[in-house]
């Protein structure tokens, strides 16, 4: 596996935070070493759950400092909400191709709004969606669970898929983040990195622990073994 050129990044998902104390929870995880804040938006239509929207993104923005907000839209239709998230302070906006009638148009819209576009692949979604989009993306997000809930078990069958995305990114010569979302924990993050990922969403593995800094440090220690390996 070719070595990643990007540094590893940990992106705690606030889906598993205490929603009654979201500002404090965001500050705490940044103080604990988070590189990105992963913001899961669910609509009870594209996925069977309902979470948070642009107003909550705007509410946490003053608490994040320079840490980017990584918005993961599990919303259909998706286009109308994109400018709202851009105004609310999102830095990265990713969406599922099944949730857009015109994937190329949605990518362009995210870029026009001043954000970095990402495309998300469910476990059963083919990578052929990258054939004509990778040159316009800043992030590819591979789901390692079916979207909708935190705390699910990592699906090992996505590991070769991650490696294939890494191959495509390397062939493109572009700097594209390769993020993996779902069931990532200290005990499996090394194999996810070895498969080619550089950015790791962790919801329950961080917010489910008492000591967020220890949880993130444990993941970084595992990643260090991959880097040196
Ligand atoms: C699932 C979400 C994930 C979720 C991950 O649909 O996209 O970001 O919060 O949670 P864990 O890390 O607990 O699997
Ligand atoms: Zn997510």
- Taking all Cα atoms into account, the compactness measure Rg is 16 Å
CATH superfamily: Aldolase class I
Q: Which blocks of ≥5 consecutive residues have pLDDT under 50?
A: none
Spatial strand sequence of the major β-sheet: 1-8-7-6-5-4-3-2
Tell me what portion of residues adopts beta-strand conformation.
15-25%
The helix content, as a percent range, equals 25-40%
Instruction: Report the CATH C-level class.
Output: Alpha Beta
Q: Please state the structural category.
A: alpha/beta
The average pLDDT score comes to 97
3D shape = globular
Q: Report the sheet with the most strands, covering strand number, pairing sense and barrel closure.
A: 8 strands, parallel
Would you tell me which CATH topology applies?
TIM Barrel
Note the run of SSEs as H and E: EHEHEHEHEEHEHEHH
CATH architecture: Alpha-Beta Barrel
Q: What is the number of domains?
A: 1
Number of strands: 8
Hetero groups in this structure are: D-xylitol-5-phosphate, zinc ion
